[in-house]
C-alpha cells in the first residue's frame, strides 16, 4: 500500500518523520528513497544554517561582553547555553549525514570526504566544523 501513494502524499509523510526514523522510510521503494534523500539533504542544510546563526549569536554576545554591555556571569551562562545548543545541533546533523552516507544517498566525493572528516572529528572529541565552540 505504501508503495502506491502519490508522490505529494509521500512528501508530506516524509516531512513529518523524525530524524531517527527518516532513513528507515527509504526502504519502502524508489520513490520513498528519493523523497527521503531530498528531505535528508533539506534537514542537513537547515541544521547547517541554524548552526551558523547560533555561531553568529555567540560572536555577537562576545562583542557585547568586550564592550562591557553585559556582565561576565550573564555572558558565561548564555555562552554555555549557545555552545550546548550548537553541540546538539551538530550531533543531529552528523546523525543524518552518517545515515545518508551509509545508505548510499551521498554521491558527491567531496561531500563524502566532508562527512567522513566531520564524523572522525566528532568521534575523537574535536570540533567538526572548526568553530571553536566545543
UniProtKB/TrEMBL annotation:
Q: Which SUPFAM superfamilies match?
A: F-box domain (SSF81383)
Q: InterPro entries, from UniProt?
A: F-box-like_dom_sf (IPR036047), F-box_dom (IPR001810)
PROSITE patterns hit by this protein: FBOX (PS50181)
The name of this protein is Uncharacterized protein
